[in-house]
Amino acid sequence: MKLKLILVVALLAWNYCSAAKTFDVRDYGAKGDGQTLDTAAIQRAINAAAAEGGTVLVPGKKTFLISTLELKAGIQFRMDGTLLVSTNQADYSGNGVLMASNAPNLTICGRGKLLGQSLSFMTSYEATNEWWLFKEWRPTMFLLTGCTNLVVRDITFGDAPFWGLHMLGCVNVLVDNVTVENRLDVPNCDGIDPDHCRNVEIKNCHLTCGDDAIVIKATRQTNDFGACANIRVHDCVIRTQDAGVKIGTETTSDIHDIVFERCQILQSSRGLAIQLRDEGTISNLVFRDIQFVSRVHSAPWWGRGEAISFTAIPRTPATRLGKLKNVLIENVSGVAENSIRVNGTLESRIENVRFKNVAVKFDRWTSYPGNVYDNRPTKVIVPEEPHPADGFNLRFVDQVSLEDCSVSWKKSSATQFRYAVHATNVSALKIAGFAGDSAAHPLVWE
Question: pTM, whole model, 2 decimals?
Answer without folding.
Answer: 0.94
